Amino acid sequence: MNQNGNPFESMWPQLSEIYQVEGVSGLIDFIRSREEPLLERRGLFLMASQRISSGQDLSRTLDDVVAISRAAIGEFATQAELETDPDEKSRRLDGANILSYNLAADLAPCWPDDDEPRTLEHYQEGIRCADDCLRWRQELNKGPVPFSMAWWAMGAHRCGMSDWNGASKAFEMSLEAAREFARESDESTEAGPQASFSINIASGWLEFARWRSGDRSSYDRFLKVIGAFSQIVQRGEEEQGDALLGIQQLETAAKRLTANESPNL
User: Closest Cα partner for 245 from 258, 224, 230?
Assistant: First the structure.
């Protein structure tokens, strides 16, 4: 799933021109018209979804990201259904799984460098993606960390819909999956500067959702998670990048998702 290793990279200028002239629907139609080989359709959909998602030298909207990503997910899932070789089937299904998670992440309301307003339809699409990820990860026998990530995606979009109780339940599942991995790895299962990114990010979002659902005591615990990330940043170790991402996620979510509500609840 590495864009730089895509064997059809040379076709990107053509795809880019089609997208800019005919729009995302024209681009999807063009790729779908490439009947053989199946590898080419996968490669082109993968490359187009990654490029449009990242916005590299392109003027795009979130609706364009949804359209091309949904077409790519559908291509991988359909090819998985038609595949008779078990290993190849799993690879195709995992491609759909990864693309689905990436779309859910793109649509989440917590990225400081992406201020395009999210709509109800975006959150509903994010929930659909998270549901698909949970189902496919079960089928693919994934470990606890991928499940923690999928439940995080579910919770983030529940937050976007102000479904704070539903979000809390999703983040509880995310945290439990992260704790399962921590126990397997003999690591801390509680949030803090010694904990993994998975433990801290799930804990931070869980306290945020609980705070917004009416538990005022959760606000202090939410701030403690941000403080834990800050301590990791100050240590300057290899986890610094993830810790900065954690701070940005939580602070951006708190700013955007409380804009129309009482900040103190």
Answer: 230
